[in-house]
């Protein structure tokens, strides 16, 4: 059965971005549980930023699961990517993501690689940069396998990455590099920019999809843009997708209203 999740940013120095709940762990978990979400997706400063036992207790208390952990803080706060020309920075990026993998694995949750994939820049070809990405992901895949979880890779839209922008190119990249323990993140916001046909792409690449981000065409909660959610929901059901659909959307018009809008739309299409 498809499960619902809501995003929670726990980095106090940040206050803008596509996360519904912010900063307060217990209050956010309480609200998520009361609204009927199945889990939460966390964005934290690092893998050691939270006490795992405390988080486990809180999740159990509110009847929630950890859906996934984001790694983007490695890029936002430390400037780390897997494709940086500097091998030392790439090494630090791998170490950071490994810490996030190990943290999430304590809850059976995967880590997500989005912005930390980086970009290719002047003086480097796309092929060379994709080679660096494949090297980094291959090493991280081993860590994930050892920890008993998959790793999630997210194709981003052209304004955020010039590497891999569609589910099809992501699937081909994973297959070409024999990355069998890595799954794709189907982010509906990015897909609205890049995909010719969202339902077709979801069905065609179904076996590679391991996580879905639930956001409308304008990155607001579903129902507040022009995404044809009915056809997307039908495609996910046809594909027998059974993972999380997680609201990585702006908290518009407020976190509480965005959360209510999200669960309303989730129930409309998946319950």
Characterization of the model:
Pfam families: AP_endonuc_2. Keywords: Isomerase. InterPro entries: Sugar_Epim/Isomerase, Xyl_isomerase-like_sf, Xyl_isomerase-like_TIM-brl. This is Sugar phosphate isomerase/epimerase. 43% of the residues lie in helices and 15% in strands. With 271 residues, it is of the alpha/beta class. The chain has one domain: Divalent-metal-dependent TIM barrel enzymes (TIM Barrel, Alpha-Beta Barrel). Strands 1-3-4-5-6-7-8-9 form an eight-stranded parallel barrel, surrounded by six helices. The longest helix is centred in the middle third of the chain and has 22 residues, at 126-147.
Mean model confidence by pLDDT: 97
Share in helix: 40-55%
Number of strands: 9
Question: End-to-end span in angstroms?
Answer: 9 Å
Coarse structural class:
alpha/beta
Q: For the report, how would you describe the main beta sheet?
A: 8 strands, parallel, barrel
Low-confidence stretches at least 5 residues in length (pLDDT < 50)?
none
By CATH reckoning, the class would read Alpha Beta
Brief summary of the model shown:
The chain is an alpha/beta fold and 271 residues long. Helices cover 43% and strands 15% of the residues.
């Amino acid at each position: 059965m498809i499960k619902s999740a809501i995003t929670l940013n726990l980095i106090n120095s940040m206050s803008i971005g596509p996360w519904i709940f912010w900063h307060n762990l217990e209050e956010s978990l309480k609200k998520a549980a009361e609204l009927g979400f199945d889990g939460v997706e966390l964005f934290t400063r690092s893998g050691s930023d939270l006490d795992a036992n405390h988080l486990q207790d809180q999740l159990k208390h509110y009847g929630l699961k950890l859906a996934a952990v984001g790694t983007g803080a490695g890029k936002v706060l430390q400037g780390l990517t897997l494709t940086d020309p500097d091998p030392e920075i790439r090494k630090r990026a791998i170490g950071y993501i490994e810490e996030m993998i190990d943290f999430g694995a304590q809850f059976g949750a995967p880590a997500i690689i989005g912005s930390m994939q980086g970009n290719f820049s002047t003086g480097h070809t796309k092929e060379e940069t994709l080679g660096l990405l494949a090297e980094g992901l291959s090493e991280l895949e081993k860590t994930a396998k050892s920890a008993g979880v998959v790793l999630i890779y997210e194709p981003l839209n052209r304004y955020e990455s010039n590497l891999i922008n569609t589910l099809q190119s992501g699937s081909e990249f994973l297959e070409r590099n024999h990355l069998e323990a890595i799954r794709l993140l189907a982010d509906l916001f990015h897909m609205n920019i890049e995909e010719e046909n969202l339902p077709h792409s979801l069905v065609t690449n179904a076996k590679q999809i391991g996580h879905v981000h639930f956001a409308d065409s304008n990155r607001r909660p579903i129902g507040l843009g022009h995404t044809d959610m009915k056809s997307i929901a039908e495609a996910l059901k046809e594909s027998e997708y059974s993972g999380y659909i997680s609201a990585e959307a702006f908290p518009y018009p407020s976190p509480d209203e965005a959360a209510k809008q999200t669960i309303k739309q989730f129930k409309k299409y998946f319950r």
